[in-house]
Amino acid sequence: MSRTALRICPLCxxxxxxxxxxxxxxxxxxxxxxxxxxxxxxxxPKGAAFGALDSDPDRLRGPLVRRAGRLRExxxxxxxxxxxxxxxxxxxxxxxxxxxxVLGNPNVHxxxxxxxxxxxxxxxxxxxxxxxxxxxxxxxxxxSGLLFGDxxxxxxxxxxxxxxxxxxxxxxxxxxxxxxTAPDFPGRLKALRARGGTLVVVxxxxxxxxxxxxxxxxxxxxSDALLLAALAHTLxxxxxxAPGALEELSQGIGxxxxxxxxxxxxAVSPACDLTAAEIRxxxxxxAAAPTAAVYGRIGSCTVEYGTLASWLVDVLNILTxxxxxxxxxxxxxxxxxxxxxxxxxxxGFALGRWSSRVGGHPEAKGELPMAALAEEIETPGxxxxxxxxxxxxNPVLSAPDGDRLDRALAGLDFMVSVDPYLNETSxxxxxxxPPPPPSRSAHFDFAFNxxxxxxxxxxxxxxxxxxxxxxxxxxxxxxxxxAVSGLHGAPPEAVDERVIADTLARAVTDPHSPxxxxxxxxxxRLLNGTTGPERRLDLMxxxxxxxxxxxxxxxxxxxxxxxxxxPRLPGVLKTRSGRxxxxxxxIAAELPRLRAALAERPAALVLVGRRHLRSNNSWLHNVPxxxxxxxxxxxxxxxxxAERLGLVDGGQARITAEGGSLEVxxxxxxxxxxxxxxxxxxWGHDRAGSRLSVAAAVPGANVNxxxxxxxxxxxxxxxxxxxxxxxxxxxx
Length: 732
Fold this sequence. Notes:
Blueprint: E1 2-8, E2 17-23, E3 26-32, H1 45-48, H2 50-54, E4 64-67, E5 70-73, H3 76-94, E6 99-103, H4 111-115, H5 117-124, E7 129-131, H6 138-148, E8 156-157, E9 164-168, H7 172-175, H8 185-194, E10 198-202, H9 208-212, E11 215-217, H10 224-237, H11 246-249, E12 250-251, H12 253-259, H13 265-272, H14 276-288, E13 293-296, H15 298-301, H16 306-319, E14 329-330, H17 373-378, E15 387-391, H18 395-398, H19 402-410, E16 414-418, E17 431-433, E18 454-457, H20 473-484, H21 493-507, H22 520-526, H23 532-542, H24 550-554, E19 560-564, E20 580-581, H25 585-596, E21 606-608, E22 635-637, H26 639-645, E23 652-657, E24 660-668, E25 676-678, H27 693-697, E26 724-725, E27 727-731
Parallel strand pairs: 6-7, 6-15, 9-10, 9-13, 10-11, 12-20, 15-16, 16-17, 21-25, 22-24
Antiparallel strand pairs: 1-2, 2-3, 4-5, 4-17, 8-14, 18-19, 21-26, 22-25, 23-24, 23-27
Organism: Streptomyces avidinii
Domain 4Fe-4S Mo/W bis-MGD-type: 2-58
Keywords: 4Fe-4S, Iron, Iron-sulfur, Metal-binding, Oxidoreductase
């Protein structure tokens, strides 16, 4: 007997609604949910392959515990017993900083990953937190923190109403967007052009997104900040800046002209490899558009001046008056957003409150650079990381110099991985705790609703009940917190009830909370939900901005539409001044370095990554339906460079950079500009001890092995994964 169930897709940031077909407890098909209030039936190949991922035979079905040097099957009790015996003892002997925590991208795609890691960090008391953000989006968090006082106050382009969209370093037709949650991003771009709007794409590759554009500019990789600075300079110099009401909300507008005075289109033209006329034309079009939005992502973040580029994206939105207005870039309002506060001065945002032990890298948003993890494990001395808790993370492939990190992980006293696979990282663990397949987990998007292009709320209960010895992912996290706290054996729901009690105690004394003045115990009794995570979600909805409850979402299985994005300034500002701080000190101090880059001689050949529609980092290479076709780990080389270097299509080449060399297959194509080569991210599934049979059959090359980890954006600690120099030699 078959049936259907609704599920929000957890495989990328688009969060599309799916209709799953189920038979005998297995997912036999997945299609787009046409009644979903947000995605309206859109689905990509990743979502269509939901069933294959869900039933992957390589998924771990139960815990593994290392005994006599080998990982062996164990019971859940044995797994948590091992953690309880090891982690608290290491903390007692060596201190809280002897434990590190690594959080990977999949954390933000699950309820458990959103609700429990902060509690885990609090229980451990460690400052050694490393996340995928410093391989991806940290520059945007830092620039938003400095501008608006809140690193999560990230404006997103109003795709459905804008007249002019400028995209930099983004390929949403294939990646479905990032820090801009938008189902059917391709359809939204086509609709923009159909209503007479303009799409300009800035990318060194002719991506599928660039192919949709009215104009495609292909500058030299890594020059995004210089190009954006020249655009801002032109707006100011030609008196095209029109911030409107934003001028009263901002401080530092008057100083911008002097700060950006050196970045004329003529000055940046050689470094960008764009003409001054092209730059001036783009600035004038941006200013003349009735509404416009500038949006930059991976390609403009994972470069040497990623934070400056992220800052300048919003500077342009402010100078053109397009920040916080329909058709421009607005701040979403999630249904679980905390209660608002009156406009006015806040606590602000600080960088470098502490630094890493070995390299002295300053923290950003409470996190240290992932590129510094290996040295923190390897280097002897007080505070050395001896134990590591990795949650949904595979930094051996995703961080620079995976070989070094591979060796470092092998030297840990103890390691725990929460991961459904024995992959390149989790194979080093002493305990592996596998969450169940996604069909067996409830879902609510705590993170991505805060970056969505339309306000909405959707909840998916588990489509398939847990079976056998499986354990709910939220329970795994709760038990892990109890184990490292020395409380193994306490009921896991105690973790959630403690959070609920603490939250209610604060809410009833907060005059801005809808629960102000209530009785905490009575309010706790009113909460709906059969599990601790559901009760926590219900509480967050009740204290959120829309007067919703979990019951409301249960009664609306296709979601609740909360309307288009609306202006929210000055309410979102948390800066010490209570205004947009347009030229904060850390940014001003970094501009001379960018100015000096104007005189640097560009490298002859640099590398950039690329995205595939049927892939997401290193997650999905073990799903047969998502392998092959265009999803291949090949090195894209322009025909002119191929001829100059003696490379042939289908041949082999050795690519070399500071971190080492790789042998890769060559694909000659004019989709990449001359002087640039492209190799995708997330490959390299050839390490002994992993259990990824499909991925290992076509392992590809780990592009991050070309890096030694020393290249970082100084303000955010983000690894430079794009625009670094390489050398190529042909192989027989």
